[in-house]
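To whoever is on call:

I kicked off a structure prediction for a single chain this morning and the downstream step that reads the tokens threw a length-mismatch warning. I double-checked the sequence; it's 538 residues and nothing unusual in it as far as I can see. Pasting both halves so you can look.
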Amino acid sequence: MLDIFFPFAGGIGLFLVGMMLLSDGLVAFAGGTLGRALVRFTGTPSKAFVSGTFVTALVQSSTATTVTLIGFVSAGLITFSQAIGVVIGASLGNTATGWIVAGLGLKVNLGFYTLPLIGIGALLKLLTPARGAALGMSLAGFGLMFLGLNTLQEGMRGLSAVLSLAALPDGGYSARIAAMLIGLAMTAILQSSSAAIATTLTALHTATINFEQAAALVVGAAIGTTLTGALAAIGGSIYAKRTALAYILFNSVAGLIAIVLLPAFFFLIDLAGAYVGLQPGATSLAAFHTLFIAVGALLFLPFTPRFGRLVERILPDRGDSITQRLDHSLLAIPAVALEASQRALEQLAERLFDFYGNLLSLGAPASQGGGLAQAGHSLERTYDFVSRIQLPPGDARLGAQRIAQLHSVDHLLRFHNRLHDLAQAGIDFSDPDYAWAIENSREMLALARQGLARKNLAPCLEQLELDAVTLAALSRQVRHDLLQDMAAPSASPANALRKTDAYRWMERTGHHIWRICHYLSQGRLANGKEPPRQENPS
């Protein structure tokens, strides 16, 4: 019995290790390029679908695609509607493993011919830096995958002589659903639908199971692959949970459609056998897997916006929409985490600038006091998030972006405290003595808002600095004049001191507006996302 169990367990283990090394190696070797491609080519649901298919087929892991995708959605790099297209494409791209196994792995002893790749990959991993080591991991993983497949075949041949799953009930929907649940359980245990599908293809090839049972097992594996994404979304942001739910719903619906339409597919197989000689086997099973996912994609893609709204109704947005994007799962991808925090800081800056604008116009609207407190909590959470981002050693670009964001947080917190003080002071900004300072502050706010709206603060920085310096100089002069006038018999010392404090606060808020914009711009420049410089319309 051990000569059956050991090759079976070892074959699955080798295949899983190979898949992990191949996926991790490719992501490390070309992860930045693949990530940028995933973001760039997701403008429409159809483009997102193609991107998801291509990336998943390349890295041989729908889990890697969906977990990365959850990070991108949480960071706001792509919209939820685009994410739906990517997860549908990831499901289709995941069928590539079946074609590789059926077309090569079961027909040619690739485990023998890929043994040199394992050795070459190990040497590259040990002797070369960074990307060379990542390439070595992927080569070794590719070789191990097929070595494991050959070992698994040996175990399956022995298993078929002892246990015949083909003897189990089949031919009815209850048997198909039972087999589907077994496939789902296999995927949940192995944490890899590719491994479950490879095991199923090998079992079919060695006649351990019949074609109908294999088809139902593949359906279960397709549904079970969504569990990893669901686990990744637990405790995550609302965007992560929505993406995971969309993935589960699509694969579940596509799988149930496949179970219902199995008789029709068997009919097509019979026709293909009669006319082109295609017999039920591993290749037919790979075709079945691709076919039912493609049918699901054809049904879902035209209704992606409606599907997205349905998922949003099931999981409505609650809480602060800004910091909800700061999902802890993003910390594993520093570049994406910094993009998420950059966007959060820009939105918080807009919120505080709006509050200051209203304060100058209306005094201190009581209805906005809660909003200022909420902004303070969001700033503290953002600071905590940025401080926990662990950067790869020697990455100067990400290091510069993180430093710029920490400076942004510092000035935003100080700006928030100034606004709180101004709101509590109850200053009457309709007093003509404040007119020139208010006009200067409003000009700065207008420039800052314009730059944030365009995602390009660089053109307005020079003018913001000039306005801040002008405000500081004139404020100091006014405070000096007010203190001089206190010597007059008719002067009100209390009123003069209140006005000098107000000018000092406005001077410092002007300085913080300039520095906030400066460091937010530095954060964009460090990430290479700042648009080309435009002429300042003012």
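Update from on-call: the warning came from a stale cache, not from the record. Cleared it. Sanity check on the structure: The chain is about 80% helix and 0% strand.
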